[in-house]
Amino acid sequence: MSTQIIGKPQDRVDGRLKVTGRAMYSGDRQEENLTYGYLLTSKVAKGLIQAMDTSVAERSPGVAAVYTPFNPLKLYHGLEPPEGATSGETLPPLQDQKILNYGQIIGLVVAESYEQARDAAALVRTQYQAEEPVASWEQGIEHTFTPESVDREKATVKILAEGVDSIDDAIRGSPLVVDVTYTEPIYHHNPMEPHATTAVWHGDRLTIYDATQGVISHRLNVASVLGIDEDMVRVLCPFVGGAFGCKGSMWMFSPLTAAAARALNRPVKTILTREQMFTLVGHRPALIQHLTLGANPDGTLQAVKHDVRSTVSFAKIFVEAAAHRTSRLLYKSPNIQVSHTLVRWNVGGPTFMRAPGCAPGMFSLECAMDELAVRCGIDPVELRTKNDAEVYPGRNVPWSCKNLVECYQLGAEKFGWSKRNSIPGAVQEGDWLVGMGMASALYPAHRNRASAKVRFQADGTAQVSSATQDLGTGTWTVLAMVGADSLGLPIAKIHTELGDSALPSAPTSGGSASVASVTPAIQKAAESAKKKLIQLAIRDRKSPFFGAKIEDVSYRNGELTGAGKSADFGSVLSGIGRSAVEAVEMAAAGEEEEKYAFHSFGAQFCQVKVNRWTGEVRLQRMTSVMDIGTVVNLKTARSQIMGGIVFGIGMALMEGTILEEKTGRYANANFADYLIATNADVPYIDIHFINKPDTIFNPLGARGIGEIGITGTPAAIANAVYNATGRRVREFPILPEKLLPIGANQPMISMSERS
Ligand code: MOS
After folding, report:
1. Ligand 1 centroid distance, CA of 352 (Å)
2. Which CATH class is domain 448-588?
3. What's the average model confidence in pLDDT over 111-125?
4. pLDDT at position 747, please?
5. What integer pLDDT is reported at residue 745 of this predicted model?
6. At what angle do helices 358-376 and 634-653 cross, to 10 degrees?
7. What does the pLDDT look like over 619-630, one tens digit per residue?
8. Cα(23) to centroid of ligand 1, in Å?
9. d(CA 702, CA 720)
10. Greatest alpha-carbon span in the chain
11. Once rounded to an integer, what is the mean pLDDT over residues 716-726?
12. How far is it, in rounded angstroms, from Cα 613 to Cα 591?
């Protein structure tokens, strides 16, 4: 799909506000009589709080209150989040003395200034009865269990060919087998903007400014934890400074702040510190993934077995569906089995993080495929092309619009894959070993029920409104573009409203679903608004179209035409003395859900150089080809894929949260020690889109784009590192020390891998 607007590179409509510092984020909120909350957090990972001495803190300058389990604010259990809401945690803080993880909320200090609250917090003395935490895979063994379901399927999904009794039989019957285990540490989202809540009560009505991916979900959750009616709560979030999943759920500091504001009868603002961002708002769990691939000598897959173990807290279940969202469906194989078990640790709750399931699952699966390509002596692109799935395994339905093979071909061509030397270590530039690698990219296409309002205004502008969010992804701009396209108006004439729970309901901006969900509602509302405009124009005496038949009047590019006349909607509305005419519509996926599978795909290629002496890995270039349906805004779409790739670089080479086994404390919960990819780590990134509209999925043909960019990146890098050095690092991230020594002390290519 391509029009004068859709598919073009459009500057962000909110860009000027952001670069001039006028975009107000939740933590920027200023209120009259404002106080500041500072969270007290646990210094042990397991046990009980025996006593807290808050007397000195309470007497410190500016302190309004110190809330603890011994002086709590009443909060209700959010065990079952209300329908349509996602909650990161279910146990409200301060309701008992139990400690389940290091950094858990054990109090809130409220003072006249942030500094006063922080300094007073340092004066609170807490006595714990500490126990040894569960903070390693070994300790977690006795806390291992199987989840009831994984990604809406059973914890173990078996697809076996007729006559095959078990996946292990299928593996034993395969001429070539790759049997590998990969491990991953905990990863943290680390958005630039920390979580923040400003809570303001007007009587029994609460307005909450919160950094959230879901204003509607947040409203439901906060109301439920405060024990009040959701109609009494309004959540506002016009801008989000990055989220990546950690703002996709409600976390308890937010209703706690609201409860303090209610008790004090003053607005309270709580902003998390960077260290608190590591323990209070989720993370990607640690994983152990065991993959066994059985294939014929020509590389045709005969068996795919993928077992996942992921970590979870003691408070709530979260499943990082690393196999169910990848090996379950990506390649054609007569025998597929995926399974999942969970291991409890004394950590805060894990949650969605950019491409949940897919990012870690593809890291392992796509490295294993590379190992298989080596084992078979087949080019990695050819191996993947050969095993491309035309139908969704086990369901036997086709994809609505799948162009993965085209991604491989175009990517290989743009990247210059044919120049790759398949012998590891063969290409050298001085002290650097050069390698090329590739991987597939994959992410499900989600679409949820959403509503939107379109409003023609007498001043000749139009308004597009929906309770969706812009996480920095470009939703402000895309909604304006789709509104402009639907109404045939220039983008400058469209005013967008979002990030307000009082607007027509829209889903949480997660699962890369916002554009796919909200734009159909805008298109429907635009059509309804046009009809209403025409009805108004033929019924009102002061309108030039008065008395015309409805079928004789039409709307095009802002103009009404019919009965030999034409007039723009602004003059029609002002002529009849109306300020506006509007329509609200809801849109949801239909029965196509049964007949098709919906996914986005891609192919990612990269070139690295690895220093022979230091093991340092430098990315040299990346090429990504994405099959994500219609590209709505070429500029923000590129930026989303690029952002995903930058995330993937960190995941592959530098990120990882270190949990101290003895204390259950994160050793690197700060930006000095938790390394993320920065400009110097990011090479030129070449991005291409297939741009074939998926109109079975939605009228615009657009699938999500926020997450897929990360999915193939880590494995493409790991495979390039192998091609450069002959070294397989299966314990991620690929840190320099894991690659050393390179060269002299060992054969560059092990014989088993060459055979
Ligand atoms: Mo995304 S991790 O689904 O917010």
Report:
1. 5
2. alpha beta
3. 98
4. 44
5. 43
6. 70
7. 999 999 999 999
8. 23
9. 31
10. 93
11. 98
12. 58
Q: Among residues 320, 287, 188, which one has the least CA distance to residue 650?
A: 188
- Six token digits for residue 239: 């801008």
pLDDT per residue as tens digits for the range 482-515: 999 999 999 999 999 999 999 999 999 999 999 9
- Cα–Cα distance measured from residue 248 to residue 243, given in angstroms and rounded to the nearest whole number: 8
Residue-wise burial string across 55-93, b where 16 or more C-beta atoms lie within 10 A, e elsewhere: eebbebeebbbbbbbeebbebeebeebeebbbbbbbbbb
Query: Domain residue spans in the chain?
Result: 31-131+192-242+247-280, 380-446+594-754, 448-588
Q: How far apart are alpha carbons 24 and 17 in whole angstroms?
A: 9
* Active site members: 707
Provide the pairing of β-strand 205-210 with 233-236.
Answer: parallel
Note the pLDDT tens digit of each residue in 443-471. Answer: 999 999 999 999 999 999 999 999 999 99
Predicted confidence at residue 742, as pLDDT, reads: 87
Separation CA 412–CA 420 (nearest Å): 10
Class of domain 31-131+192-242+247-280: alpha beta
Closest CA to 486 of 563, 572, 587, 579: 587
CA separation for the pair 720, 439 (Å, rounded): 10
**Domain 31-131+192-242+247-280 shares a fold with domain 380-446+594-754:** no
Assign domain 380-446+594-754 to its CATH architecture.
Answer: 2-Layer Sandwich (3.30)
Helix (H) or strand (E) holding 635: helix 634-653
The pLDDT confidence band at residue 86, using thresholds 50, 70 and 90, is confident
Ligand 1 pocket test: pick from 86, 318, 352 the residue with the most ligand atoms within 8 Å of its Cβ.
352
Question: Which pair of tokens denotes residue 204?
Answer: 């029994």
- Pocket (CB within 6 angstroms of ligand 1): 213, 244-245, 248, 352-354, 356, 510-511, 707
Over the stretch 335-372, which tens digit does the pLDDT of each residue have? 999 999 999 999 999 999 999 999 999 999 999 999 99
